[in-house]
Amino acid sequence: MVSSDAALALAQLAGVVLGADDLPSALTRVTLVAVEVVPGCDACSLTMRMAGRPEAPATSDAWSRELDELQFSEQEGPCLDCMREGSIQRVRDFTDDSRFPSYGPRAAAQGARSALSLPLTADGRTVGALNLYSRQPAAFGSEEVAAGELLAAHASLAVQAATAYYSSVELAAQMRDALVSRAVIEQAKGVLVAQQQIAPDDAFALLTRLSQQSNRKLREVAAALVDSAARGA
Q1: Structural domain of residue 117, as residue ranges?
Q2: Global pTM?
Q3: For residue range 65-81, what is the model confidence (pLDDT) as tens digits?
Q4: pLDDT tens string 91-146
Q5: Which of 147, 164, 181 is the last residue before a domain boundary?
Q6: DSSP for 66-88?
Q7: Whole-angstrom distance, CA of residue 103 vs CA of residue 73
Q8: What is the Cα–Cα distance from 127 to 58, expressed in whole angstroms?
Q9: Coil/strand/helix, residue 158
Q10: Cα separation, 169 vs 167, whole angstroms
């Protein structure tokens, strides 16, 4: 059973991740909550596919990151199977699990004895895996799996909310940059129109040529021109 404190931590998870400074910080909070609420869990990682490759964008500690990266290098392990199959993967003891003949012994050598990987879903598809690691064998029984499933459900929602939130923040920042760039370019065009007595379209063409010749961004060339005009150069 999930304790009342654990249930409260789960209920507040989505709100907490949105209070983080950035998406990696938000996802890291998910892994820390997992260690807090799932009995027997010593460490946690969140695995996702990025640019077609598995990566661990968030971990509770260096140990869980090492265990994940070892799976990536060996190309086998519970988190990879979880993402591929979209199903829960439970390892009772890495020392005698025949599914992972290469990864299992190496994970055990690093102190991991059991693991639980649960799929994270978005829009009906598996987008990642929440991986729980324990230094004890058979640490994840039916109750721990139930707690993990509840956490994974909350984590999936939190990941979706955080991704949408930070994507919108990034988009807003890009729009602000674009508006600033446009304003600077318009100012630079005005300077050239006044100085060179040319049409606005010709002024923009001149800015473009200067940008290409100097191998600098158009905004940088425009800002330098405006700054030069302001100083009376």
Answers
A1: 4-164
A2: 0.66
A3: 999 999 999 999 999 99
A4: 999 999 999 999 999 999 999 999 999 998 877 788 889 999 999 999 999 888 88
A5: 164
A6: HHHHHHHHHT-SHHHHHHHHTS-
A7: 9
A8: 14
A9: helix
A10: 5
